[in-house]
Specification:
The complex is a heterodimer of chains A (340) and B (308). Chain A is mainly α and 340 residues long. Chain A has helices at 2-5, 30-42, 44-50, 55-79, 88-103, 109-131, 136-156, 183-206, 208-218, 220-225, 230-256, 266-279, 285-304, 308-322, 326-335, and strands at residues 166-167, 258-259. The two termini of chain A are 30 Å apart. Chain B has one domain: ABC transporter involved in vitamin B12 uptake, BtuC (Orthogonal Bundle). Helices cover 73% and strands 2% of the residues of chain B. Chain B has 11 helices and 2 strands, in the order ααααββααααααα. Chain B has a two-stranded antiparallel ribbon. In chain B, β1 and β2 (138-140) form a beta hairpin. The longest helix of chain B is centred in the N-terminal third of the chain and has 32 residues, at 2-33. Chain B is globular and about 65 Å long. The chains are: A mainly alpha (340), B mainly alpha (308). Chain A: It comes from Jiella pacifica.
Amino acid sequence: MSAGTSNVAVPGAVPDVAPRRGGMLAGRGSALAAALIFAALAVLPPIALAIGDPFLVVTATRILVFAIAALSLDLVLGYGAMVSFGHAAFVGLGAYAVAILASHGIDDILVQALAAIGVSALFALVTGAISLRTKGVYFIMITLAFGQMAYFFMVSLSAYGGDDGLTLSARSTLFGLPVLSSDVSLFYVSLAVLASAFLGLRALTLSRFGRVLRGTRENPIRMQAIGFQPFAFQLTAYVIAGALAGLAGVLLANQAEFVSPAYMSWQRSGELIVMVVLGGMGTLVGPIGGAIAFLLLEDWLAHFSEHWKLGLGVLLVLLVLFTRGGIAGGVERLFGRARP
Amino acid sequence: MFNLFLLQALNGVQFGILLFLVAAGLTLIFGIMDMINLAHGVLYMVGAYFAATFTALTGDFLLGLAIALPAALLFGLFLEVLIFRHLYERDHLDQVLATFGLILILNEGVKIVWGAAPMSVPIPEILSGAIPLIGPLQYPFYRVVIIAAGLLTAVGLWLLVNHTRIGMLLRAGAVNAPMVSALGVDIRRLFMLVFGFGAMLAGFAGAMVAPILSVEPGMGDGVLILTFVVIVIGGVGSVRGAFVAAILVGLVDTLGRTFGPIVLRAVMDPSAASQTGRTLAPMLIYILMAAVLFFRPSGLFPAKGSAA
């Protein structure tokens, strides 16, 4: 019985989330899989133009943005074993940084990105420092509550649109040049950010920092016993993930040319978790695949019925109930377990 | 000013009582089975829909309520057998995913069954009207009924938890469920009971607000988050903590929204004060939660004491 091994909110308790590796894109092939995904994405715009479907580029940009957000969540969820249920708040804060600065005439993407990263990192630092004092169900509920706090803040911020959101008059510029004005250039910028984030997180997770984080995931008591402070490492990971999600928000605001509190709603946070778990936690390529699969599935289900969320919900429940060890475990058994 | 304070304080207590009804079952589910259940808010919503439907069918709110309660209980037991009992031994992430899926199903499900348009339930004749407070001040009778019903339920729960054998098992389960199980108690049946009863309490809360709020898809989502705040402040597994925290959250939220702008007006100009107040008021309860957690990471009345 899981209740027996996990004592809520007792300092130094056994982690509530059992370590899980793998997923459909785990292991040795992960670098190869990532290279293939990035290569396929890189040739997408010319193909989309050739087959006369330029809207494909817009959809793909949206997928890239959520892939960045899911990738950042994976650092917290997969490597840190922290079930954070408020990750969409960081994406929203990043998007609002763009919209609010733009409404004051500051259009430069570098300034906006810096502000977005700063705000979301600060929010992650403050809320993370409080949330990480707790464990298990507490941590889930508290991150959820802080996410909702940010959401309600934006809903009641009527100076910047409140519940209705804020429309951007134009996309961001770089040194006064409208470099993001075409959908294709925004796509490639997003792809470059995703690729950089992937490489950066890969280096980070393979570093000493990443090993300590994974060690904490597997056994926090042992890590403490050999002289590490899990709190500092977990908080650092939480802040890095928040900042990266904020950067995803910058791209999201530019892609949609509109921001609203809906970006920060807890359903969005839940969807990000689904993306990470669907693709495979604790593998950096997994969340990218998960984001692609989830958003395509969403589009596909939406074609059938306006009640597509019902189908998504049924699918989620069935996957959890009938695949031992959750979705990742089920997919793992389907595709065989590949360990690094 | 005092009159306004009194009215808003009563509204805050009434809101807190509703939060308590939803939180009471959920805190035991968290406490005893160490399980995270995101789908408790939709049970509140389903309760409201049951009340609306049965009131429309029977033409009488009290009769509708009397049918809605067992219906909510059965619905809770149905979900327990169908889904929840398979989740107890999974990790928290699986529980989050499955109950998140359940929210999507039920929110969309009520849209299909009852339509997306909000439903309204008339306040029953005998519970309408207002009662006088001090001087010319009046308060809607129906809200007094909600407070009274909630307090009665709280007293009933207190008797159940503190003075019955089942209550003893519940308290023991919240402290150390495996030990209770090892001593020969069928903890699964106990939990099924808690789950069904918790679903009924949440449904009761939903049914009681049906006449004063609009019944619509997604109405449980906001309540769920507030319930989490209540449980975190009160301490997981503690019904007493849930009661204190629920009243506290209800009061702080309601009074903050009314008096935040008024208090700020003393230090800044009126338009800025009302703007700032409106923005900050919804955040008050989260700041309260953060403050409580900072000083007491396991809530005000943790069920799992130092012995755990």
